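Predict the 3D structure for this chain.
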Amino acid sequence: MATVKEFSVEEKLSSLVNLQKIDSKLDEIRILKGELPMEVADLEDEIQGLYARQTRIEEEINGVTEFINQRKEAIKEAEALVKKYEKQSENVKNNREFEAINKEIEMQQLEVKLAEKHIKDANEEIAEKAITLEKAKKNIAMKEGVLASKKSELEKIIAANEQEETQYLKQAEAARAAVDPRLLASYEKIRTNYRNGLAVVPVERDACGGCFYAIPPQKQSEIRQHKKVMVCENCGRILVDEELNNNIEI
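Done. Predicted structure below.
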């Protein structure tokens, strides 16, 4: 049965320092990108929403245009009926028939006026929607211009750092595999607690390299001995001596 190698505390700490330095390099590259990835994603979502609004306005205009065409057809039908009734009125036999035909003519004339009013109102509605549509299109064009600019900026940053980032990502994967699983879990948890991502820091000028809390001489001596993993009492970061930290290069 194969034996599992037991790593010394110094080896465990060295693995952590190595991982921290690689992660810090990756953090630097992410800082260069800044908020650009999020801004690009937000702009893409916003533009998608604006296109949906544009489509909705266009559909509304089409709906109103169809309504206008229906009203125009109604006018044609009403005018045709008026002509029909007028022709019939020439052959009426009594006043009762004459009055009935006149009422039908008046009703169709009212239908024409009502349809004309509907058309007028609908054209005004289309004019308003056309203005809104034009504003929406200009807004989309402006947002797309901003998006193109930010994408270009982001692509330049990615291109400039792509090779280096790929290299560090591979190194980080290998480095994580070399760290004790329990220590790795603690390291990841500590990293998420701080914006600068520093979970492992050296003691510099008698203080924690993360929060600058003073480290007593006795504790500094214990840190240098590498007999156990020591943490800062103030911030909880893992502490290493400056010599071990400086000996690890990536």
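Residues 34-177 form a domain with the Helix Hairpins fold (CATH 1.10.287.1490).
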